[in-house]
Amino acid sequence: MKLDANAESDPQSDAAVRRAFVDGDVGALGQIFDHHSGPVWSVAMAVLRDRQLADEATQETFMRAWRASDRYDPSRPLAPWLLTIARRTALDVIRRESRPTRGGHEPERDVPLHVPGIERAWETWEVKSALNRLPADERDVVWFAHFHGMSHPQIADQLGVPVGTVKSRSHRAHKRLASLLSHMISEGGTS
């Protein structure tokens, strides 16, 4: 199902996005993320009072919602359901962060973290942009393979198509991605 980017403004389109989300449509998940990530992040930030933890909780909220999408009733508003998941996820992050380390006997020490630089952010944006330019059927195959670690037979079962079709779509998608991202190598990117 192809979804309109402005679907959140039309109640009928919004219902279509919710139904597509329940049916496992990755495009619907993207639209839901685009529309609801701000409020979800605000709930996480209100609970956690830390930007990095709020970012982490936001990401985890959408992963949990995606995994539980089959239990969501698309006839009901999505925001309260998502915001409840966000609050519970933020509370789980607090619990996880407050657990003592090393059996609780040694004081916790901060470990320097490598913060991704502007180049990494640019590369991430380029890859996301290239993925968004793929036809939906090819993008779905790449999404399931790389973001869910699914095999070709598993993707075929998920999409209801033959394994050969999944392999063809995967081949075409990777060929298109290589072409769409070739400038990164010529511009000095590290893809």
How is the biggest beta sheet arranged? Answer: none
Strand content: under 5%
The general outline is globular
Task: Work out the helicity level.
Answer: 55-70%
CATH superfamily of the largest domain: RNA polymerase sigma factor, region 2, helix turn helix motif
> Helix/strand-derived class?
mainly alpha
CATH architecture of the largest domain: Orthogonal Bundle
Q: Please report the first level of CATH classification, the CATH class of the largest domain.
A: Mainly Alpha
Q: Unreliable runs, pLDDT <50, ≥5 residues?
A: 1-10
What is the strand and helix layout of this fold?
Elements: H1 11-22, H2 26-48, H3 51-67, H4 78-98, H5 118-133, H6 136-147, H7 152-159, H8 163-186
Brief description of this entry?
The protein has 191 residues and is mostly helical. It contains 8 helices and no strands. The relative contact order is 0.08.
Structural features, described:
The chain is mostly helical and 191 residues long. It folds into two domains: 7-99, Rna Polymerase Sigma Factor, Chain: A, CATH 1.10.1740; 118-186, Arc Repressor Mutant, subunit A (Orthogonal Bundle). Helix content is 70%, strand content 0%. It is built from eight helices and no strands. The protein has helices spanning 11-22, 26-48, 51-67, 78-98, 118-133, 136-147, 152-159, 163-186. Helix 6 (136-147) crosses helix 8. The chain is globular. The chain starts with 10 loop residues before the first helix and ends in a 5-residue tail after the last helix.
